[in-house]
C-alpha cells in the first residue's frame, strides 16, 4: 500500500547495532547511519558528539521506512490455531446430526435394538416452544430494554467526544467539580437503596433489617476508603490534571482512532461469532444410542470423541485472539500518536493511522501475537494461582511455588510494559523492543514500573459519575413514560453498565496515549530534543517524584 508520499520520504532501515556500538549502551545520538529514518520535514537538528566519538549509536525515532517481518514463528503458530479452529468448525457444520435437540423424542425399540423417533411428541414440543417464544417477545419489559440500550449506544458516541473536548480544554474544572461526586454518588445510592428496601414489603422480607444495616455500613466503609485514597493522593492531583490534558490534546488531534479502534473491536466480535457458531454446531456431532441401566434401556446422546478437544482448541484460540487484538489496538494507537509527536508542526501526519494499521497487521503481526500470547499466559497462570489460594492448600512447597509463580508473572509484566509501544515506534522484534525500552528508560532515570497513572483512577471516577447521572435520568424518564414498576431499575442499571463499558473503552485508549507520549518523551530526552514543549513541561516532573516524597510521586503499575 505504499504511496508516492511514503516512497519519497523514506529509506530502508539498517541494523540496530553497528560495529562501533555493539558493546556500548544505546545513547541514541544522531548519526549518518540512522536506523530509523524519518521524513526530511521531521528530521531533528543534528546534535551530539563528533563522528569520531566511539560512544555514538543510532538515533531512535519513528521508523517510516520499510519494516522487515519480526517474530514470524509466533505468527505462524497463531495462524495454525486459527486455521485448525475454522477447519474443524466447518467440518462440524457439514457433519452435524440434526437429532441432537430431539433426544427426548426417541424411544428404545426392542425389536430393532435401537432408538426410534416419536414424531407426535416432537410436534407437541415444537408448538410449546413457539408459543413460549411468542409470549416472551411480546413483553413490554423487553421492548423498553431494547430501545433503552439502542439509544444509549447511539448517545455514547457524542458523550465520548464531549468528554474528550472537556478534558482537553477544561481538565482542571472537570476533575475538581466531579471529585465530590466520587463520594456523593455511592452514598446516595446506598442510602436510597436502604430506604427503598425498608419501605418495600417484598424487599424487607427478603433482606432482614440486620442485613440491610450491614450492607449500608459496608458501602459506607468503602466510601471511607475512597476518601482516604483521595486525601492521600491530593498532592498529585495537579500533575494528574496536566497529564490528562496533554493526552486529551494528543487524542483530539487523531480522532480517526475513535473510528478505527471500535472497528477493530467489531471485527473481533464478528470473528468470535463465527467461532461460537462452530462451537454450537460441534455439539451436534454425535449420535443417539441406547444405554442400559438396571435392566432398562434409555436413549441418550453420545458425543463424538473429538468434540471436547475442539472446544479446548477453540477457547484457547479465542482467548489468544482477544489478547492479541488488545495488543494490536495498543500498537495502532501508539504508532499513530508517535507520528503526531515526532512531527515538527502541530498538524496531523498524512496517513498515520493507515501506516500504523499496515505495520500492525503486516511486519509486526508476529510481535503482536507474541505479546498477546504472553499476556494470555500470565492471565491464565495468575487465575490458576488465585484459584489455588482460595482452596487454601497447606504445605510449604505449595507456598514456595506460589511465590515463584507470582515473581515470574511480575517479571513478565515488567517486561511487557511499554514494549508494544516501543515496537510500534521502531518496528523492532519483541525481545529487542523490551531490551531497548529498558535501556532507554534506565539511562534517562525513568522507570517502566513507576508511571503517573493516577489519571486512570480519576478518569474511572469521572466515568462512574457520568454513567450514574445518565442512569438516574433514564430511570426518571422510564418512570414518567412507562408502567414497568421496579423493572425500570433493571433497565436503568443495564443502561448504566453499557455506558460505563463504552466510556471505559475511551479511558483505555486515553491510557495508551499517556504511555505512548511517555515513551516519546523518553526518546526526546535521550536525544536532547524537544518536539512537543507542552509534553516536556508536564512529564519532566515524573522522575522528580521518584526522589522526593514532597513532590509529585508516581504510582506503581496496575496489573
UniProtKB/TrEMBL annotation:
Biased composition (Polar residues): 10-24, 48-57
Sample GO molecular function, one term: transmembrane transporter activity
GO cellular component: plasma membrane
One Pfam family from the record: Choline_transpo
Keywords in alphabetical order: Membrane, Transmembrane, Transmembrane helix
Annotated segments matching region Disordered: 1-57
Positions with biased composition (Pro residues): 37-47
InterPro entries, alphabetized: Choline_transptr-like
Membrane association type: Multi-pass membrane protein
Location in or out of the cell: Cell membrane; Membrane
Entries under PANTHER family matching the protein: CHOLINE TRANSPORTER-LIKE (SLC FAMILY 44) (PTHR12385), CHOLINE TRANSPORTER-LIKE PROTEIN (PTHR12385:SF98)
Function summary: Choline transporter.
Entry's family note: Belongs to the CTL (choline transporter-like) family.
Protein name (record): Choline transporter-like protein
Amino acid at each position: 500500500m505504499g504511496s508516492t508520499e511514503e516512497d519519497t520520504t523514506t529509506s530502508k532501515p539498517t541494523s540496530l547495532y553497528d560495529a562501533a556500538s555493539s558493546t556500548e549502551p544505546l545513547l541514541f545520538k544522531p548519526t549518518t547511519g540512522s536506523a530509523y529514518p524519518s521524513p526530511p520535514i521531521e528530521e531533528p537538528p543534528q546534535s551530539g558528539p563528533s563522528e569520531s566519538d566511539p560512544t555514538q549509536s543510532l538515533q531512535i525515532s519513528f521508523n517510516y521506512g520499510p519494516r522487515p517481518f519480526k517474530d514470524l514463528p509466533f505468527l505462524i503458530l497463531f495462524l495454525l490455531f486459527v486455521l485448525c479452529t475454522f477447519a474443524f468448525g466447518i467440518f462440524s457444520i457439514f457433519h452435524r446430526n440434526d437429532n441432537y435437540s430431539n433426544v427426548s423424542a426417541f424411544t428404545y425399540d426392542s425389536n430393532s435394538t435401537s432408538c426410534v423417533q416419536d414424531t407426535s411428541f416432537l410436534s407437541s414440543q415444537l408448538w410449546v416452544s413457539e408459543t413460549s417464544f411468542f409470549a416472551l417477545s411480546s413483553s413490554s419489559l423487553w421492548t423498553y430494554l431494547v430501545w433503552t440500550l439502542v439509544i444509549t449506544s447511539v448517545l455514547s458516541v457524542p458523550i465520548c467526544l464531549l468528554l474528550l473536548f472537556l478534558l482537553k480544554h477544561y481538565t482542571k474544572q472537570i476533575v475538581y467539580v466531579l471529585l465530590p461526586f466520587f463520594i456523593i454518588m455511592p452514598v446516595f445510592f446506598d442510602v436510597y437503596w436502604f430506604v427503598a428496601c425498608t419501605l418495600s414489603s417484598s424487599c424487607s422480607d427478603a433482606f432482614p433489617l440486620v442485613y440491610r444495616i450491614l450492607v449500608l455500613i459496608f458501602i459506607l466503609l468503602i466510601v471511607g476508603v475512597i476518601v482516604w485514597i483521595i486525601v492521600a493522593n491530593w498532592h498529585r492531583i495537579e500533575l494528574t490534571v496536566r497529564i490528562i490534558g496533554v493526552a486529551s490534546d494528543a487524542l483530539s488531534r487523531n480522532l480517526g482512532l475513535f473510528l478505527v479502534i471500535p472497528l477493530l473491536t467489531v471485527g473481533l466480535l464478528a470473528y468470535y461469532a463465527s467461532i461460537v457458531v462452530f462451537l454450537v454446531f460441534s455439539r451436534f456431532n454425535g449420535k443417539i444410542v441406547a444405554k442400559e441401566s438396571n435392566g432398562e434401556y434409555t436413549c441418550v446422546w453420545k458425543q463424538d470423541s473429538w468434540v471436547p478437544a475442539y472446544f479446548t482448541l477453540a477457547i484457547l484460540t479465542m482467548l489468544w485472539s482477544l489478547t492479541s487484538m488488545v495488543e494490536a489496538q495498543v500498537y495502532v494507537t501508539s504508532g499513530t500518536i508517535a507520528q503526531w509527536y515526532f512531527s515538527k508542526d502541530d498538524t496531523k501526519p498524512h496517513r498515520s493511522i493507515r501506516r500504523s494499521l499496515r505495520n500492525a497487521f503486516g511486519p509486526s503481526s508476529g510481535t503482536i501475537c507474541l505479546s498477546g500470547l504472553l499476556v494470555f499466559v500470565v492471565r491464565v497462570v495468575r487465575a490458576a494461582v488465585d484459584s489455588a489460594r482460595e482452596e487454601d492448600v497447606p504445605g510449604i512447597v505449595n507456598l514456595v511455588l506460589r511465590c515463584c509463580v507470582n515473581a515470574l508473572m511480575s517479571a513478565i509484566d515488567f517486561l511487557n510494559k511499554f514494549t508494544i509501544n516501543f515496537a510500534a515506534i521502531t518496528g523492532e522484534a519483541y525481545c529487542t523492543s523490551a531490551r531497548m525500552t529498558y535501556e532507554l528508560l534506565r539511562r534517562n532515570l525513568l522507570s517502566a514500573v513507576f508511571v503517573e497513572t493516577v489519571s486512570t483512577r480519576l478518569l474511572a471516577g469521572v466515568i462512574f459519575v457520568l454513567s450514574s447521572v445518565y442512569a438516574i435520568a433514564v430511570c426518571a424518564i422510564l418512570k414518567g413514560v412507562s408502567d414497568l414498576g421496579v423493572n425500570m431499575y433493571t433497565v436503568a442499571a443495564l443502561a448504566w453498565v453499557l455506558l460505563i463499558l463504552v466510556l471505559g473503552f475511551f479511558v483505555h485508549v486515553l491510557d495508551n496515549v499517556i504511555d505512548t507520549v511517555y515513551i516519546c518523551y523518553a526518546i526526546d530526552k535521550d536525544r536532547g530534543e524537544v518536539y512537543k514543549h507542552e509534553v516536556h513541561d508536564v512529564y519532566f516532573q515524573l522522575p522528580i517524584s521518584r526522589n522526593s516524597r514532597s513532590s509529585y510521586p508516581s504510582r506503581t503499575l496496575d496489573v
